Amino acid sequence: MAKFKVLAMDNVSEKGLEPLRKEPDIEVVIGKKMTEDELVEIIGDYDAMIVRSATKVTPRVLENAPKLKVVGRAGVGVDNIDLNAATQHGVLVVNAPDGNTIAATEHTIAMMLALARNIPQAVAKMKNGVWDKKAFLGVELRGKVLGVIGLGRIGSAVARRAQALEMDIVAYDPYITSEKAESLGIKLVTMDELLPVADFITMHMPKTKETYHMLDEQAFAKMKDGVRVINCARGGIVDEEALYKYMQSGKVAGAALDVFEKEPNTESPLLALDNFIATPHLGASTAEAQLNVAIDVAEEIVEALQGKVVRNTVNIPSVKPEVMVKIKPYLKLAEKLGKFQAQLVEGRATKLEVTYNGDLAGEEVKPITTALIKGFLDPILQETVNFINAPLLAKNRGINVIQTVNGRAGGYASLITVKVVSDKGEHTLSGTLFQDNDPRIVMVDGYRVDAIPEGYMLYVPHIDKPMIIGPVGMMFGKYNINIASMQVGRKEVGGKAVMMLSVDAPVPEDTMKEIAGIDGVLDVKFVSL
Ligand SMILES: NC(=O)C1=CN([C@@H]2O[C@H](COP(=O)(O)OP(=O)(O)OC[C@H]3O[C@@H](n4cnc5c(N)ncnc54)[C@H](O)[C@@H]3O)[C@@H](O)[C@H]2O)C=CC1
Ligand SMILES: O=C(O)C(=O)COP(=O)(O)O
């Protein structure tokens, strides 16, 4: 009997699964289309699964998959996989980000040309027996402005091809440097600059909380009259209701969607509009792309099941298993320290200084730093941040990350200290693992504390004097918020001190204001971990 079973869903290219099939230890099962219930029923047998965009890897699926070690996404977007739940269950998520770039790029160009020349509408008429030459006066692309939103792999490949069509390109992408854009001969602009000048707008970013409904009513209102909009990235980036409204008003002359907020979708009111064209999420559907992504993901799954370093990990850093065993508890601690700092910092962060002391000094600490950056950016950028892009996103946001290792750790076996510098000040936080990998924050801004980094916390710098701790505690009583623990640290009697509290519920804004108003309280920060 094979040691590992792999479930391949969503019509992934069978030819591309050869790297799995040639392993004697691995059995591949081709799965049919299933409901969540059906998947939950069988997933317990599998060590790995491969999906495209159709199968949803939900927390419930993951809960029922005790053997599952890796989920491979044969493509780019992982928004159908619950990454947090996968991480919690220790399931590695890998993707194949390069194999379908050209397919999605060419589909975008095809959509743009089809829109400009009304090709789908003309074909439909001819097939209905109508030779209607005068209904379809098109526009040329040459000399038109193309606004590319999201200048990553696909966005930049689209831009290069559009340059060959003699279009002028402007692009918006807050996470790439102007040098990269310049090297492509493209002007980076703000959204507000792009919207009024673009004749065509094409979207090429992932779906995140930040990008959800990025083209909404307000954005459409700012666009040039007669604009044409293309989305071959993710449904939900464009607000379909707003698009409908602006197409009906005539402001938007045409739109082409390959992706919808709800998929499959044959019900959208947009489909009734003459100047609207659509494809059923075909961006990656070429023979070449499907073979490429299936091979990539199959190879990655072999690597993962054999305990090797895997290339495109999305949720967990890729390191050798023996290293992972040692650093794993620190990844969680570091992520929490980063998340804590993100909620303390005021202004624009410019520097993250991470220092490792004690036993950690001899370990491979780079993944721990990545976890810390991920934690720091998570509250700002939501799902966009993963172990692959975190360092790059920090760099693109102008955050200089400095990592230092140092032998001594005071009284601790190991210590991680992170200093965040912003244009408004700085904060320093140290954490360690007590026995049984129990995470603790042991120092805040130079004050000794002993706080478990979990749940809802408050950081309250104050003057060390009577009638502070009581009134702060009373305030929580007044609002019926239970205090789970409280720590006070000071350096000298009557000087500055800090209070760290853990509470059982989020603290409303008004309560925070009242606490800040207590005589002697210098500041209050609510932290949710
Ligand atoms: N229709 C289809 O079948 C296919 C769709 N896709 C989708 O296309 C999209 C782009 O894929 P790639 O180019 O490979 O990804 P990528 O990761 O190379 O590029 C994404 C770009 O979006 C930018 N971005 C992130 N947040 C942004 C924001 N708020 N505003 C503007 N830009 C932002 C990033 O900085 C990055 O440069 C993804 O959503 C992917 O899932 C990819 C392949 C096929
Ligand atoms: O790779 C992506 O992000 C895609 O959207 C491709 O989706 P698909 O694999 O064709 O369901």
What features would you highlight for this structure?
7-stranded parallel sheet, binds 2-oxo-3-(phosphonooxy)propanoic acid, 60s Ribosomal Protein L30, Chain: A, 4 domains, 6-stranded mixed sheet, 33% helix, globular, Rossmann fold, binds 1,4-dihydronicotinamide adenine dinucleotide, alpha/beta, 529 residues
**Structural classification:** alpha/beta
Strand order of the largest sheet: 8-7-6-9-10-11-12
Bound molecules: 1,4-dihydronicotinamide adenine dinucleotide, 2-oxo-3-(phosphonooxy)propanoic acid
Would you identify the CATH architecture of the largest domain? Answer: 3-Layer(aba) Sandwich
In helices, the fraction of residues equals 25-40%
pLDDT below 50 for ≥5 consecutive residues: which ranges? none
CATH H-level superfamily title of the largest domain: NAD(P)-binding Rossmann-like Domain
InterPro entries: ACT-like_dom_sf, ACT_dom, ASB_dom_sf, D-2-hydroxyacid_DH, D-isomer_2_OHA_DH_cat_dom, D-isomer_DH_CS, D-isomer_DH_CS1, D-isomer_DH_NAD-bd
Keywords: Amino-acid biosynthesis, NAD, Oxidoreductase, Serine biosynthesis
Pathway: Amino-acid biosynthesis; L-serine biosynthesis; L-serine from 3-phospho-D-glycerate: step 1/3
GO biological process, one term: L-serine biosynthetic process
